[in-house]
Amino acid sequence: MADLSMRPRIEGHASGSLDSFLGALNRGLSDSSSFVGTTYEKSAVIKIREQERHFWSPQLHLSLESDGDEVEILGLFSPHPTVWSAFMAAYMALAFLGIMGVTIGASQYLLGNPPFALWAGPAALLLGMAVYLAARFGRSLGSDQMRAQLTFLREATAFSTEPLSTDS
User: pTM (2 decimals)?
Assistant: First the structure.
C-alpha cells in the first residue's frame, strides 16, 4: 500500500545510553560535510547543510527515550517549518473558503436565487487535492536527502530499525 503521509516517520533503537547516543550524533554532525544539526536533552534535529539545501529539503526531528542501555528513537521527516506552515495555511484557507461557499450557496438556494456559491465546495476539494499532490511532489524531490539523512543516522549512531532481540 502506498504511503500517504506527508511527513514520513521512522522508529528504531540504538544500544547504549542516551548520552552516548547524543555524543555519537554530535561527533557525526561535526565531521559531516552534508549535515548540520542540534541536539537537546531528549531530542535532536538533523538538517541539510545550507549549500545543498533547496526548497523541499527535509529535516529529521528525533525524539529520544532511554531505559539505560537502549535508546528508543522516533523520527519525523518534515520540510522546513516555513514550508510546512505554508501548506497548512493553504489547507485551512481552502477549508474555510469551501465551508463559507457551501454556506452561502445553501443560503442562495433557500432564498430562491441561483446557488452559484455551492461550486466553492468542489472547487476547494479539487484545490486541496492539488496542494496535496504538490506536497507529494516536493517530498519526492527531497527523498534522496531523506535517505541520506537516515544513512547518516545509522552510520553515526548505530541506529537500527531491526526489532529488538528478546531472550525468552
Answer: 0.79
